[in-house]
């Protein structure tokens, strides 16, 4: 069997090299190389070129090399075979590092101290809120949201979550569906977005939603952290909410257009922290081995792990 590695936007060679090492009995080809489409039984992809998988008539499964699968469903020619995504403890831990780091940056006002250091200004603030005074609301209590919640609680933050379905998570009040959204927002000082991008969630982070965040928190105004997908947010609304005080600050890892265009006002906004969609990078070492194991199990007749539901798109 042959595995096709079809990647745009990331370096493909380290993935092919890793797959060759962990599945020496199989052929691994890059999309840029010549290959017979009828020999391909598996495809491992990140933002593959739309329609490029359509000729793979013997394809048995597609593996997303990221946790998010919105890139797959952008392809109208996606073959109707099972799709699996990444669920990886390494990736999950990286995302929680990012979320905890940026919640603490906002709690401890680190961007302001950076500016003060540049200006050589000594301002002695004695009365800073503690993590226990701050409420973090996580939209998307899946693999990533649940781990981030645990680690935020270990730091002392008060955490609640918003999900599609109801679920019980010790120590975390869970709100579900559109019916639960306004109560969730009303008790959130720092909004952490870890939702997948689907037809239901596209553009959900808009001015209306941001106006629903708590106004009585200890940070002097609500804060947004989005590490889910750029398509979830309306950047013009984020900027207007920062301008009129609806939002105090934002940390954004993902953007409507990536890379973030050089002329975006987000780059130079004093209350916006920009990171280049690397909150949690997929690691070929861990994920290459997982996909090799998944293929082996699948070929032994076991169900594909981390299967994506095409109807829900996550
Ligand atoms: P999961 O599928 O495990 O979790 C998704 C969660 O979102 C589920 O709890 C689900 O609720 C909830 N959800 C989905 N749709 C809705 C909706 N319409 N309303 C309310 N809740 C909804 O995904 P992960 O936690 O593994 O990953 C989340 C996202 O993080 C990825 O899709 C990807 O976009 C992003 N990501 C970003 C990275 C980065 O570097 N910036 C790295 C990795 C991932 P329910 O369980 O009830 O269905
Ligand atoms: C992912 C990502 O979905 O890196 O894994 O964005």
How are the secondary structure elements laid out?
Elements: E1 2-7, H1 13-22, E2 27-30, E3 40-46, E4 61-64, H2 70-73, E5 83-84, H3 89-107, H4 110-118, E6 135-139, H5 143-154, E7 158-163, E8 173-176, H6 177-186, E9 190-193, H7 207-211, E10 223-226, H8 235-243, E11 249-252, E12 272-274, H9 284-299
Helix pairs in contact: 1-9, 3-5
Query: From the alpha-carbon coordinates, what is the Rg to the nearest angstrom?
Result: 21 Å
The helix-and-strand class reads: alpha/beta
| Main sheet record | 7 strands, parallel
The percentage of residues in β strands lies in 15-25%
What average pLDDT do the residues reach?
A: 97
Which ligands, by name, code or SMILES, are bound?
NADPH dihydro-nicotinamide-adenine-dinucleotide phosphate, oxalic acid
- Note the run of SSEs as H and E: EHEEEHEHHEHEEHEHEHEEH
Number of helices: 9
Instruction: Write down how many β-strands occur, each being a DSSP E stretch of 2 or more residues.
Output: 12
Catalogue the unreliable spans: none
Between the first and last Cα atoms, what is the distance in angstroms?
Answer: 27 Å
What gross morphology would you assign? elongated
Helix residue percentage: 25-40%
């Amino acid at each position: 069997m042959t595995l096709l590695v079809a990647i745009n936007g990331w370096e493909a060679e380290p993935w092919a090299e890793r797959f060759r090492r962990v599945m020496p009995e199989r052929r691994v080809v890059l999309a840029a190389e010549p290959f017979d489409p009828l020999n391909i039984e598996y495809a491992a992809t990140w933002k593959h070129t739309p329609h490029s998988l359509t000729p793979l008539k013997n394809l048995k499964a597609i593996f997303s090399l990221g946790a998010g699968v919105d890139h797959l469903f952008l392809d109208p020619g996606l073959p109707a075979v099972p799709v699996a995504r990444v669920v990886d403890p390494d990736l999950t831990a990286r995302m929680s590092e990012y979320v905890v780091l940026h919640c603490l940056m906002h709690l401890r006002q680190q961007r302001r101290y950076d500016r003060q250091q540049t200006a050589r200004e000594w301002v002695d603030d004695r009365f800073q809120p503690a993590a226990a005074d701050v409420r973090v609301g996580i939209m998307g209590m899946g693999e990533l949201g649940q781990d981030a919640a645990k680690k935020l609680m270990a730091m002392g933050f008060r955490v609640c979550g918003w999900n599609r379905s109801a679920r019980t998570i010790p120590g975390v009040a869970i709100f579900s569906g559109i019916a639960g959204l306004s109560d969730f927002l009303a008790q959130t000082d720092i909004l952490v977005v870890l939702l997948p991008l689907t037809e239901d969630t596209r553009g959900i982070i808009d001015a209306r939603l941001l106006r629903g965040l708590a106004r009585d928190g200890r940070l002097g105004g609500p804060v947004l952290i989005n590490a889910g997908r750029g398509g979830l947010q309306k950047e013009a609304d984020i900027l207007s909410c920062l301008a009129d005080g609806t939002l105090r600050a934002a940390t954004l890892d993902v953007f409507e257009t990536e890379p973030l265009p050089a002329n975006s006002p987000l780059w130079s906004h004093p209350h916006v922290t920009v990171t280049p969609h690397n909150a949690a990078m997929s690691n070929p070492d861990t994920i290459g081995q997982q996909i090799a194991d998944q293929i082996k199990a699948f070929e032994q007749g076991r169900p594909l792990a981390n299967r994506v539901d095409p109807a829900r798109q996550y």
